[in-house]
Amino acid sequence: MSNFHQDSVPFFSIVIPTRDRSDLIEGLIWSILEQSFQEFELIVCDNSNNGLTQEVLSNFEDDRIVNITTGNLEMSENYNVGINASSGKYLMCISDKGFLKQGALRFLYDLIINEKHQCITWALDNFVYPGTFVESSAQKKESRLLESSYILKFMLGADYRNYEFAPMHCTSCISMKLVSDIRSKHINLCQAQNPDYTMAAQILLATSNVYNLKQNLAILRNVSTKDGYGTGHSLAKKTTESRQFLKDHSKWIEYTNKFSDVPIKDCPFIIDLMLKDTYKVLEDNEINPDIYLSKTERLICYYFFAYEEILWRKRLGVNMDYEYNLWLEALNKENEHIKNKVKERKKSLLFISISSHFKYLVKSNWITAYLLDIYRSIRYSKTGKKYNDIKDCYRENVIENYIN
């Protein structure tokens, strides 16, 4: 039990938006309550369709846990319920698939007290069930201060690999002053469609810089070597759930089809969702994206990364002929400069293209796919560090202390 007094102002407000993942929520809460730094409130927004999450929460006896049952809310609305109920000095949003590493809160507190950063970000390590911990290859030698405009440039250029710099769920800590400034203009921090990308864009517009850590303070949990939790994996593989997701959000898709900066309509690509959220936030703030990247540059980047997404999803065994034809049809309507620049950049993906086609052929045949799974299980058995469970991983991986 904490020595923190309930009447005191918590330093951290940790918001956990969750929906029907009772099997994950217990471990996440445990990873927070076990932290050596204890001055926090923990706000759980349970948007579930059943009572299983409430059963898990009933096992915790801690006055700092604020249990809010919502239900039938859009994802962004569920995030906002917790954010708007926060009373701490700094905000952290951690989705139920996240997991906080040991020493994370103490490190953040010491860093903030000494350096006064308003927004701090980091990358994520991975834990693949049943027990493989994989450190991110994105680990950096030094922490660094990045201009917000630098990050927005990557986001508008559809460079999803550099989204890790942006303040999103599980990867950021933001001063409540920034949150209050945003809410004074827009009521909510998160907007439809995706709370992650809209939150990131809102924060980047509200602050001039972001402090990006070399340390990874949190872990993203994955179902297996092939599957993860969340809409992203479903969209990548074009599952029944992803089709339902797009159907449920048809009005948002129809509205955002007006953004000519995303030339292919109706969101056949995952990056379409990411980009349209960003453009919607810029629109709400009456900001011209040209100040970060010209429209020509944005279109060139869009076609390049959309093509890269096609290859990535082919490697997952997904038939991407329809998406490729849409991509080609849209590109052929562009001017010669854009077409030539995209074709030039596309050459760098020649080897990946050949590899993607081969992997697709392997995975689309059940015999070769079965043999590949055997090979991958053998190969993956030698990858990462092995633990009995996520709690053992927590105990043996400690964030190094902050040093001024």
Describe the structure.
It is a single chain. With 404 residues, this protein is α/β, with parallel strands linked by helices. Helices cover 47% and strands 14% of the residues. Strands 3-2-1-4-10-6-11-9 form an eight-stranded mixed β-sheet, sandwiched between helices. Strand 7 (124-128) and strand 8 (132-134) form a beta hairpin. The model has no long low-confidence stretch (mean pLDDT 92).
Q: In a few lines, what is going on in this structure?
A:
The protein has helices spanning 22-33, 52-57, 75-84, 104-115, 148-156, 176-186, 195-206, 231-237, 240-248, 250-256, 270-284, 295-315, 321-332, 336-346, 350-363, 366-380, 390-396; strands at 12-18, 40-46, 65-69, 90-93, 98-100, 119-121, 124-128, 132-134, 144-147, 172-175, 209-212, 218-222, 385-386.
Shape: globular
The strand order across the widest sheet is: 3-2-1-4-10-6-11-9
What structural class is derived from the secondary structure elements?
Answer: alpha/beta
How large is the count of helical segments? 17
* Radius of gyration from CA coordinates: 22 Å
Alpha-carbon distance between the termini? 30 Å
Which regions have little confidence, pLDDT < 50, spanning 5+ residues?
A: none
- Report helical residue fraction: 40-55%
Describe the largest sheet.
8 strands, mixed
The overall strand count is 13
Element-by-element helix/strand order: EHEHEHEEHEEEEHEHHEEHHHHHHHHHEH
- Percent strand: 5-15%
The mean pLDDT is 92
